[in-house]
Design a protein that fits this description.
The structure holds three protein chains of three kinds. Chain B is α/β, with parallel strands linked by helices. Chain B has nine helices and 15 strands. A seven-stranded mixed sheet of chain B has the order 10-9-8-7-11-12-15, sandwiched between helices. In chain B, strands 4-3-6-1-2-5 form a six-stranded antiparallel sheet. Chain C is globular. Classes of the chains: A alpha+beta, B alpha/beta, C alpha/beta.
Chain lengths: 336, 277, 294
Amino acid sequence: MDEKIILKDDLLRICGDVIDKGHILLCPVMNEYSIVKDFSRIKLDASALPAGTSFKCYVFPKTEPVLYYKRSKSDVQLIDVNIDRKNIVILGAKPCDANSLNIMKHLFNWDYSDEFFNLREKNFIIIGLMCSHYDEYCFCTSVDSSPVSEKGSDIFLIPVDENKFAMRIITEKGSEFISPYAEYLKTGDENISKQITENVKLPKVAFDSNEVYEWLGENFESPKWEGIGNLCLSCAKCAFVCPVCHCFDIVDEDYSYTEGRRMKNWDGCQFGNFTMHASGHNPRDIQSKRYRQRVNHKFRYYVDKFGEILCTGCGRCSRGCPVSIDIKEIVSNCKD
Amino acid sequence: MNNIYMPHLAEIKEIIDESPDTRTFRLKFKDGDTADRFEFKAGQFAEYSAFGDGESTFCIASSPTRKEFIECSFKVFGKVTQALHRLNRGDTIGIRGPYGNWFPLDELKGKNLLFIAGGIGIAPVRCVIDNVLDLRNDFKDLTIISGARSVSDIIYKQEINVWKDRTDIKTIITVDPGGETPSWDGEVGFVPAILEKTAPSPENTAVILCGPPVMIKLTIPILTNLGFKDEEIFTTLENRMKCGLGKCGRCNIGNVYVCKDGPVFTYAQIKRMPQEF
Amino acid sequence: MKELREHAKELLEKGEVSAVIGYSQVSEKRTKPIIVTDPQDTDQLVFNEYCLNNLAVYLTKARIKVSCRTKDKTLKLAVTAKPCDVHSVVALIQENQIHREDIHIISFNCHGVAKDFGFEFSGDNIASKCINCETHKPLYFDKIFGEEKETPKASDDAMERIQEIERMSHQERFEFFKNEFDKCIKCYACRAVCPLCYCQRCITDKTIPRWIESSSHMRGNFAWNIVRAFHLSGRCTGCGECERACPVDIPLSLLNRRMAIKAKKSFSYVSGRSLETPTLVGSFNEKDNDELFM
């Protein structure tokens, strides 16, 4: 592993250069990953909780056109979409967010490649930041990750002291990105950063994902779902703040009598009409079935299909749930 | 960019009013290249667009052996099918596909085939029937049992007449009790009852079964009683779909994505799925 | 707390109610809704300054309503409600969604709640709806608990912001809401937590024709948020749940409170205050102020 030391000021200088080059710089600022133009706003706080929303919307936007159409009397003309191929640098990605693209990648490339996702993902450079704080909703350690996990990051930062970071260059992409800035990098000592990461307090492992997988397989019909279904109010907040939830809807929108576009919009499996057939029949007609689908999709179906859990353990869904339904609690207590 | 959501354009060459609420479009791709390259197998589906209203999922109802046109049949239910119903001959629609798996006709060669269909469920079955008829020598006895709510609801009347005229297929058409007219010369009764009465032999026979959920639910026990094996009963599942590509996340039953792992399943496979239809 | 639990237990044991909808403690500064049907579980019920949810939202849920129906009679549903949540219950009764005789209201003397879970309850962290609250005692109840306490003093940011927005020019106001609505991701959490958003099928789910574009771009977001504000005009009781639930912090209360102020000024009507008064939208008086007509 290639380990360097970089001063915080130098890192900010690199950010300034990134902005000058016309790339997009994303940073967790105020509870969301926002585009930073003024790099004095960058905090790089390892002890912050995950931002309210992940950076999913920059690779899988909440709404985006997939094609434009023009209609005349009986003819139709289709116009393809151009995707903005700007490089996006994410500075200070939480380890639980950094891995999200790797998890979603399977789905968007399963047989058919979704270039809308891929082209954006290709231009992402993720600079992860070790996480030194967790709350009652964090459970990354239960889903094969950890606050010091480098998974998904191209470059990984470990704060050594207030002004210095240890920088691990993880991927080819990361090394390519950092190579023009070699002058800022000093040789690091792996032992120091290792000592720091080893001393990070880890959230307790709340459940064994293999056991949850087994339990879900045997308990498709369980009274537990009914209880949760009665409490859950069927909004999609959990899905929309989730860094890896990826379900979408496709709708047409006319903006005049002759022109319009086809949109791909976020959609949520907790909505009642998500699976409703045109005939009115609905395979998941009640909330308990929809919640069961959500948990199964995350901890069983996705594992079956792609060998990974569809969850990064960031805890956003539970932290934000209007009725405080805690997915960690549900899966850890599944056997009771 | 390789845009997987981009449909091919096709012209509506002919519209056949099958019943008061069901229509068949005979479609031809506008681009000759696409027409040559568009290969599909019996049982696969496509996404049809009415631009301005969206996409809807139906099977391809014509046989892959008849390349002149692509046909699809739809019943007016929701927003998109209503919009498609408003289109006229010469209008343009979009087609994305073909998607999904197919009936394993290669494996079924040398067998007797029993086709059972109800309502609009005859669309995928018709695709297989025509396909099999074009390869008639590869298969043994063919039996069709098809039901509709009433005489006016019977779709594919033209095709049915062709099948009836042939001596190498046994064609039984039935309408639900009360749906017959004075001049109706076919059977009267629900599909499961007619099947029981006909009592086809399960010997070396595969079943292709498509129809509304309640019909399938009632037909399967009768097939089992007659001695048909779960592995020999092929059916299609329909779920709401948006992408057809295994991405949008709504058609799954357990870990099975109907759009990619289906829509064709054997009853043995369906039995293993979580009961969430 | 003890009295609350005993009362709930008694209700369930005597078979007077089918369920008690209440709060249970999750962590020190967080509670969650709980639907208690087993008398043994009543010891989970709590009431404190962290009971933020407006449980009236559960009263119209079909599955919960159905569970009240036994073979020979319909059981009551007991709901734990802060005095301000009682307004929502009243509004639901006014709008004929539930009947007063089917609901057993357990309420409290209230001195405010925290602005969100995890915040220490104090003048700095009091929910904005509590600051100028006039109903510390519920207007309607079947059982009341809790002692009367002073509400911590605080300044009403929301009121100041409303005034600030009033002072803006048309263009500025439009820009302000444009920026706010731009954030909307259409998760419909605002709709889900709202006790008065009880429509079986929301207008935004209707596709033939599609009245509100489902995409969360500017046009779709404006359509949704404005239509919702209109639908709640003269109906919203100001519980503030929509704003609390919003994952992108759109100040929805500003809109709803503005509409409520308008309703009060124009028609002297405040939603959810009286079982005897007909609803504002559902009643007509020839002396009604007509300045709102365009």
